[in-house]
Design brief:
Helix content is about 45%, strand content about 10%. The chain is an alpha/beta fold and about 80 residues long. Strand 1, helix 2 and strand 2 form a beta-alpha-beta unit.
Length: about 80
């Protein structure tokens, strides 16, 4: 349960992944608290909290990425560069 990092540690162990092979996508600071100590990048799913400007500002400042819409995340993950 967030913010316990155990789920990420377990996934890394089971699938032999490094932190840079993963991406946590969430709209809550608890996810950042879970991912950050393990150096797992985190993307702020801003579409989940449109009515919370203070949270939006904080998450945009601490997360590695921020996406306003799920389609923006989709382009980031799946579009050819």
């Amino acid at each position: 349960r967030k913010p316990n990092p155990f789920p990420l540690e377990d996934i890394m162990r089971r699938f032999d992944l490094k932190p840079e092979d993963m991406l946590v996508v969430d709209d809550m600071k608890l996810a950042w608290m879970m991912a950050h100590p393990l150096n797992v990048p985190i993307a702020f799913a801003a579409w989940g909290k449109p009515d919370f400007p203070e949270l939006q500002q904080e998450m945009r400042s601490i997360c590695d990425y921020a996406f306003d819409w799920a389609s923006d995340l989709e382009m980031f993950l799946f579009e050819e560069v």
